[in-house]
């Protein structure tokens, strides 16, 4: 995203478990900056520290949902975060998804 090239990324589990597995590529003792939203828990930070990483937890942004009054026409909806699911259903209701195919990035979102 934004032109950043990842050196390591999860290969199948796109939640915290996958990130912890990918972080094993970082040498122990390395200083790591974890950038997160105001809604993310500190669990991932603690798990990175358990790998022997010196992890600083940094709030990078506030997650503020928008409230659209409808969903544009589509055959499918793709959710990449639990907060996107929550914002969508709070704004337009679960019924607005209708018979669309729903795709989620990983277990926490699904």
What does this structure look like?
It is built from three helices and four strands. The mean pLDDT is 90. By secondary structure, it is of the alpha/beta class. Strands 1-2 form a two-stranded parallel sheet. Strands 3-4 form a two-stranded parallel ribbon.
Main sheet: which strands, in order across?
Answer: 1-2
Radius of gyration: 17 Å
How much β-strand is present in the residues? 15-25%
Instruction: Give the class from helix and strand content and strand pairing.
Output: alpha/beta
Q: Can you tell me the overall shape? A: elongated
Number of helices: 3
Overall number of strands: 4
Give average pLDDT, whole number.
Answer: 90
Low-confidence stretches: none
The helix fraction, in percent, is 10-25%
Distance between the termini: 22 Å
Question: Major beta sheet, specifics?
Answer: 2 strands, parallel
Order of helices and strands: HEHEEHE
Write the layout of secondary structure elements.
Blueprint: H1 16-23, E1 31-37, H2 43-50, E2 54-61, E3 76-79, H3 82-92, E4 101-104
Parallel strand pairs: 1-2, 3-4
Summarize the structure.
Helix content is 25%, strand content 21%.
Key features of this structure:
alpha/beta; 110 residues; two-stranded parallel sheet; elongated; two-stranded parallel ribbon; 4 strands
């Amino acid at each position: 995203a934004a032109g950043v090239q990842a050196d390591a990324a999860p290969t199948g589990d796109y939640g915290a478990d996958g990130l912890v597995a990918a972080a094993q590529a970082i040498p122990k003792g390395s200083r790591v900056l974890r950038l997160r939203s105001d809604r993310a828990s500190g669990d991932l930070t603690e798990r990175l520290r358990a790998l022997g990483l010196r992890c600083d937890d940094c709030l990078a942004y506030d997650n503020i949902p928008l409230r659209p009054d409808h969903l544009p026409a589509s055959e499918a909806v793709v959710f990449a975060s639990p907060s996107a699911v929550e914002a969508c259903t709070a704004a337009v209701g679960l019924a607005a998804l209708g018979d669309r195919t729903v795709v989620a990035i990983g277990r926490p979102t699904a």
